[in-house]
């Protein structure tokens, strides 16, 4: 930068730097040699010199400001045209020719820079336009500093308060009433006006604060309620008010398992419970931030228990086995994930489905009782997983899992029978009658969809840094992160998985182990029947682990290792069942007058219950029963005259059929039948 105003720094220029005056002695590449007024020399980088807060070139004019091109586009056409017209006049004063003049245009004598001074040319322009010399010189100075923006009438671009001329006390009252609307049901602007007037009169007295007209009141409320959703959705209004005041920082992770977010929410699908009642199911999922993989997902017909969170953690750490009926394309061997590398570590990967096994370093949970329970915390401590709690009422702390719930509802749930929609305003008619899926059926559909739909579907938030225009699927992102980070998950062994299951302390008797009126037995339990376990604190009882999602077997810890004991009546049941299914079956058996402690009776009820849930309600039988009840409620028909017996014509002997005894049907008398039953 030179004294003439050019944007070039040359040797010999004097600058202000580091609290003193310096002269530029030499320039060598990116280095600048300086000599202070006292004669001391120094060498500094040009970037450091230019970034110094007190750097300035002595005697140099400041660099011209860039024109705010965006603001120019917001001006009215008349204001923009007036500024362009003034630009033509100012340029003519400076150069003698207006901008865009054709080659060979003759300069007018009064604007000739050779024979006229700047003041004389400015005076000629003032006389031409009928303005003062000061106006022309002011326009010329502003154009030199700001360009075209300096010629715009500043009265048109002056920033005004959104509240206009409203009294500050009235504005404060409006803001307070709008803040109070956050937790109330959505109302109208007239309600806000009424409450504002009451608040102003109660605070400052009646007639003290001037009130605007109704139209001005409406404009003031609209200006102050911008972005609050005061008169829109109540849910959106509460969510907006609950957002942090600071900038939103996205959550990043560089490797699989660096952060896993866990949460639960009711699913937007009506399911048929074992009792025949329709209700929404609770979905608990764990989402890996780095790859957006849904590590595990669990459905329950009731509120999620504490044990479910620990089981969810355990299911993340074991391979997802292929199930009968699944396509071979869902195998891990058919995907892009590093199947061969994982197979060399764990042979279970050979029959695993295409879902990554992710060992979390940190899990983010909310303050729900499910996740802050001792069961879940102890499970995380055993696995070396750090638990990070989100702030109360701050869903943005685990925004990824919250967004995943919305994606599941839109990509999966809306295609299911019994879909309820996100809210009541979008719910169909008689959705309960459309529900056909049970919890186990829906869990199977969800597990298969996670493999075929979610894990293989491109995700907009997963981008290759070298190909940002192409979205990646969670499986592809997992494979690329494994290659970049050298990630090799050490999955849980079978014994480790059993350790995370809930525990019941029971005795091993001659008939086996009894849990909740269910008997489990195995030949391997023989040496430990009627024996003391050695745990004096548990009165000699044995440690029995069970899976609440599959009560068909239990696992007993003995001095010789783990023993799997199946339910003795398992052959009577043709489907897996859970603890809540068993409890309901016992209640049905008790309601039917059966002994709910009789395992055979409960097993038969359970088998019939699961069979009915598998095939759905028999609509045809229900219709027949309904028609029968309707017919029974009709009045009895009146007696009809006796019909004369007229013999039918005898058939030909060639066509005669063997004679058979004819059994006459009696006439049903509803009244007589009722008397007989009474």
Write the layout of secondary structure elements.
Blueprint: E1 14-17, E2 20-28, E3 31-36, E4 41-45, H1 46-51, E5 56-57, H2 69-73, H3 77-95, H4 118-129, H5 133-146, H6 168-180, H7 189-204, H8 214-224, H9 234-241, E6 260-272, E7 278-288, E8 294-300, H10 306-316, H11 339-343, E9 362-365, H12 374-383, E10 386-389, H13 399-411, H14 431-434, H15 439-454, E11 459-464, E12 467-472, H16 474-485, H17 494-499, E13 503-506, E14 513-515, E15 518-520, E16 542-547, E17 550-558, E18 561-566, H18 579-591, H19 599-615, H20 619-632, H21 670-677
Give a brief rundown of this model.
By secondary structure, the chain is of the alpha+beta class.
Percent in helix: 25-40%
Mean pLDDT: 77
* CA distance, first residue to last residue: 116 Å
Radius of gyration using CA atoms only = 42 Å
Shape: elongated
Strands in their spatial order, largest beta sheet: 4-3-2-1-5
- Helical region count? 21
Structural class: alpha+beta
CATH-derived topology of the largest domain: Nucleotidyltransferase, domain 5
Q: Tell me the CATH superfamily of the largest domain.
A: Ribonuclease H-like superfamily/Ribonuclease H
| The CATH C-level class name of the largest domain | Alpha Beta
Please tell me the total number of domains: 5
Description:
With 678 residues, the protein is an alpha+beta fold. The protein has 5 domains: 1-63, SH3 type barrels (Roll), CATH 2.30.30; 69-151, no CATH class; 168-241; 260-485, Ribonuclease H-like superfamily/Ribonuclease H (Nucleotidyltransferase, domain 5); 499-612, no CATH class. The protein is 34% helix and 16% strand. It has 21 helices and 18 strands. The strands form 5 sheets. A 5-stranded antiparallel β-sheet has the order 4-3-2-1-5. Strands 8-7-6-9-10 form a 5-stranded mixed β-sheet, sandwiched between helices. A 4-stranded antiparallel β-sheet has the order 13-16-17-18. Helix 3 packs across helix 5 (133-146) and helix 6 (168-180) packs across helix 7. The longest helix has 19 residues, at 77-95. It is elongated and about 125 Å long. Residues 1-5 and 612-670 have low confidence and may be disordered.
